[in-house]
Amino acid sequence: MISSVSTAIPSFIILILFLACFFSAPRIPILTNRLYILLLFATLVTAAMNILASYANRNFSVDRFIVTYIFNTLFFVALLVRSYLFFAYSASLVNLNHYNTRMFAWVFRLPMIITAVVAVTSFKTKALFRITDAGFEKGPFMYLLYMCLYFYLIVSVFAIIIHKKNFSGARDFWGAIAFNVFLASGSLYVSVFPTSLMIDTFCLMSVIVIFLCFENPDFRTEARTGLFNGNALHDYLQEMHYKKNILLLAFVIKNYQDIREIYGIPSMDTGIRLIGNYLKTSYPEITSFYFKEGRFILSADADTDADELCKSIAERFENSWDAKGVELYLNICFARMDPGTDLSSADLTLNALISAMNRAVKSDDGFVAVVGDKDITDYIKEISVKKILELTVEENLIEVFLQPIVETAHLRIVGAEALARIRDREGRFISPEDFIPIAEKNGCITTLGEQILDKTCKFIKENSLDSIGLSWINVNLSPIQFFVNDIAASYEEIIRRNGLDYNIIRLEITEESMVSHSLLLKQMESMTEKGFQFVLDDYGKGYSNLSRLHKCPFVNIKIDMELVWAYCNNPNLLLPSMISSFKSMGFTVTAEGIENREMADAMIALGCDYLQGYYFSKPLSMPDFTKAFAIFA
Ligand code: C2E
Ligand code: MG
Ligand code: MG
Fold it and tell me: Which residues pair with 199 in a beta bridge?
């Protein structure tokens, strides 16, 4: 007894620590968390009963007959409940919750219940075990217990493997396999050495794996706000969308990226934390999530007055947030999903909400966008574009169109911009505005970018650029591509493979890339050293910072077409002074979106070096481009 207790004490302490950890941090109300806490209790009770039962068995005397029966029965019942809970936990990890109809649940509880009944009635039937004058003895139906333990293990592993895709990553999948392997080892051990207490040690190891892979509260908490994070939101919606009886209210800080730049990242982070604290203290009954980039999502009971909630949050935002001495004035707008909205998946729920948030951002402050059919169709369209995009990239079917860039000195074509095109199944073009953001989100932008560069290089190799009058071709580079470490190496390899000079390609990057400025500069420097040239695209679209440009090795700045159109409709001083600043800084300037002669003249008068727009030509397929412009050589 002494030795078994001394080996069990560390296990008990570890389990109690896990219990304390569970209650020390807020948890989202989802099945996985509820099962985890039940598991901790069941593990603790089973281990305690195991010690008591083996003590009673080893020190058996006839006058302790009843006590020995009771401890053994309790141990077997606790063991069965614990195996069922481990199985239920595995099932909840792979989202079998939706099968969690009453019937499904009871079918899977049946082996546990039948075996538990056999254990409890063994007092009379002696089926599972019996207590004789010599003490504990296995009964003829003991195999039922082992079968039950193995049944839950086999079904768990089966469900995990079949539904592998439901895991968010390899760590989760292997974590689920690992804790079941520990359980299986424990069950094997106990069937060979029935009196050993090792099964509880194996079980503890399973609990540790579960904690490390799934139940560490940091996985579902946003560090700055202490609110639940995007992972938590996903897990929560996965479960809640079956119930459809919640109100989801989202609010978003307008122009979050720009404001972050203006106030500075530390102040804005403090602001986000203050908002988190405000939500936690003012609405403790509401589950609040922080879903990156200034977006907060609240889940409330179906009978919550959504208008009242929006009003009271909006009122708080009329005042500033005191971020360590910096007064933050933040404008927000809302998106709302009413209870009962019929959505078929968590992804659809979240994306419809994001789509409504995006709509709200474009409207007035305080506006409430209600999730409706358009948000749902937008998301369905996104999924179909995603499929087409993935197929197109996989089969390298992406098309490259070219749009000429004209120099203002002689109104002669000197360059072109390569623009990506994909087609749907009917052969209709899908706009890059639709597929580039998706490619950036799912990571295929890297391959797409390389394919565009390679096809542009091949075009240059196959057509003498001089004969078309081109000195260079601009290729767009997404900011996401800068986060890939080997972009310099892979782009260099493509240019070298095609036997070209680096300066024949100019890489266009947009202003938003400048958000993570130091990383961008580092990557740009290493690429410029190799001979690449950079062009700043769409200047004026976002929050522009002239001083930052000084340090960047751009050869040319392209003024966003909105700015050009605004000036042509209503001449102002902004654009002329911007262009003259660029020129004094040594950059050449391109005006985008030139649609007619008047616009071209206006931009020439302001001193632009290059023009691009439908007035000269729309983007053309490569064969059409050579056909149209070869004659100008
Ligand atoms: P961008 O780089 O600013 O490209 C110019 C866009 O303006 C092109 O749209 C072009 O067709 C359009 N445009 C040119 N002249 C005019 C005009 O006079 N009037 C009007 N209304 N539009 C004009 P497109 O091809 O739809 O591309 C949209 C954006 O998608 C591009 O904007 C670029 O940011 C992105 N994109 C396109 N191809 C690629 C690519 O290969 N890689 C990456 N990362 N982004 C790309
Ligand atoms: Mg561009
Ligand atoms: Mg542009």
Answer: none
- Cβ–ligand 1 contact at 452 (below 6 Å): yes
End-to-end CA distance of the chain: 97
405 alpha carbon, closest ligand: 1
- Predicted confidence at residue 633, as pLDDT, reads 44
What's the burial of 267, exposed, middle or buried (CB within 10 Å: 0-12/13-18/19+)? Answer: buried
Q: What is the pLDDT of residue 433?
A: 93
Q: Whole-model pTM? A: 0.66
Structural domain boundaries, residue 147: 5-218
- HSE (side-chain half, CA atoms, 13 Å) at 601: 3
Q: Does the pLDDT value for residue 548 go beyond 80? A: no
Mean pLDDT for the chain overall: 89
Note whether 388 and 315 are same-domain residues: no
Which residue's CA is minimally distant from atom 19 of ligand 1? Answer: 593
Q: Is 99 in the pocket of ligand 1 (CB under 6 A)?
A: no
Residue at which a domain ends, from 332, 350, 371: 371
Residue from 335, 309, 339, 334 nearest 246 by CA: 339
Q: Pocket of ligand 1, candidates 385, 435, 436, 556: which has the most ligand atoms within 8 Å of its Cβ, to mutate?
A: 436
Separation of CA 508 and ligand 2 centre (Å):
6
Question: If you take atom 44 of ligand 1, which residue's CA is the nearest one?
Answer: 478
- Same domain flag for 575 and 600: yes
The ligand with the least distance to the CA atom of 538 is 3
**27 and 42 share one domain:** yes
Tell me how far apart the 2 most distant CA atoms of the chain are, in Å: 112
Residue 574 lies in a domain: yes
- pLDDT tens, 228-270? 999 899 889 888 766 668 899 999 999 898 888 889 889 999 9
Instruction: Name the residue with tokens 């004969």.
Output: 467
Residue nearest atom 25 of ligand 1, based on CA coordinates: 419
The answer as to whether 31 is a domain residue is yes
Name the DSSP class of 164: G
Helix H, strand E, coil C: the string for 182-204 is: HHHHHHHHHHHCCCCCHHHHHHH
Domain stop point among 314, 347, 371: 371
Any domain includes 377: no
Coil, helix or strand for 287?
A: strand
What's the rounded Cα separation, in Å, for the pair 288 and 298?
Answer: 4
pLDDT in tens, 455-477: 999 999 998 887 788 999 999 99
What pLDDT sits at residue 195?
Answer: 62
Predicted confidence (pLDDT) at residue 526 exceeds the cutoff of 80 = yes
Total domains in the fold of the chain: 3
Same domain? 184 vs 249: no
Instruction: Find, among 621, 555, 620, the residue nearest to 585 by Cα.
Output: 555
For residue 604, what are its two tokens?
Answer: 């020439």
**20-66 per-position pLDDT tens digit:** 999 988 899 888 999 999 999 999 999 999 889 888 888 888 778 89
Q: Is residue 171 part of a domain?
A: yes
What CATH number is associated with residue 583? 3.20.20.450
- Indicate the pLDDT class of residue 544, thresholds 50, 70 and 90: low
Q: What is the CATH number of the domain that holds 129?
A: 1.20.1070.10
